[in-house]
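Exercise 7. Given the components listed, write out the predicted structure of the assembled complex. Treat all entries as one system.
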Amino acid sequence: MSLDFLVHRTEPALTRIIERPALEPADGQVVARVEKFAFTANNISYRVTGDSIGYWKFFPVPEEGWGRIPAFGFATVERSRSAALKEGTRFFGYFTTSSHLVMEPEHVSEANFIDHMPHRRDLHAVYNSYSFLGADPAYHPDFEDMQALLRPQYTTSFLIDHFVVSSLFFGARQVLVLSASSKTAIGFAYAQWLRGEGRPDLIGVTSPGNLDFVRRLGCYDRSVSYDALTELDPGVPTLIVDFAGDGQVVATLHRHFADNIRYNCAVGKSHWAAAPVDLPGRKPKFFFAPNHAMQLIGEIGANEFWRRLNAGWSRLRVDAARWIMVETGRGPGDLSELYARLLAGTVPPDRGHMIRL
Ligand SMILES: NC(=O)c1ccc[n+]([C@@H]2O[C@H](COP(=O)([O-])OP(=O)(O)OC[C@H]3O[C@@H](n4cnc5c(N)ncnc54)[C@H](OP(=O)(O)O)[C@@H]3O)[C@@H](O)[C@H]2O)c1
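Answer.
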């Protein structure tokens, strides 16, 4: 038997659990057992941008109007009809809220393979690549959950860090990080903090209830809550790195800082329910991490890219135990409950949720 957790594509609160007969691999395919995956605000953003960015296309379902949210995690080959992938092989990558998945391994090397299922062939290569654990220098068995919860996000954090540094912070003297308590924002702040002195002030902006958590992290120079933004000095040239995507907050900042907003890097929409607002001043520019990753690999080569990324990651995964506690949910009931809490924004920032369906 195979189990799928579906969400309605236009009615966020509607979910369904579908039991299907055991999946059968065709020639050249495997059936992967999805062992566990991480589920955070990032997954809610996949749902919100399912149509505009195309995340629904990765794991389509026959039920019209419904979809499966992608999720990073670990899987094992349960049945194989591929000469290249043996039963029992474990790997990390982009899965979904299902117990099993049919995959078609192609370009199989010692390090990784590409899922070449027909519906995925035109989708972004970054998401179609899966890494074998033994050959992945960033993998360590003690940090599997941290890897699922933080490494994909840290890749984005690392890329934003590179982007703002190589753009000389667009001439800003301070960086406002919106939704500072989110894992991707913390990774960015961590990457900045690792650089030491000589960079603009890093100000974490968060909800009043998450302010203490953000202060305790120690990787932001200062922190403020969304309702105190207008107390900041409007004369300071400012760069916004926005993980919240809350139009009202950004409009307040644009009015307050006016031309002193030097750049607004729109990364996420953790405040997914916030209504869109017509913004005054310079328009935000969306930061799509997979495109930046391909660009940087083109510039410095894959080996140097992974060396730099893994240098920061191997420190963060250890340090993260200080501020994140992993909780593992089991079965579709726990996933439904977590999904509802993520939609409502009631998951505390010091929790990282893994699901085993
Ligand atoms: N563009 C890209 O390529 C890319 C790549 C990776 C991630 N992202 C985006 O980065 C964002 C953060 O992802 P993450 O996995 O790091 O998230 P996360 O750790 O789960 O974020 C948790 C934080 O988000 C805010 N939040 C969560 N749900 C909310 C809700 N329903 N209403 C209001 N606030 C809510 C709260 O922060 P505050 O109180 O501090 O606001 C909360 O502490 C997501 O939007 C994700 O899509 C984008």
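Discussion: Residues 72 and 152 are 8 Å apart (CA to CA). The chain has two domains: 2-136+325-356, 150-290.
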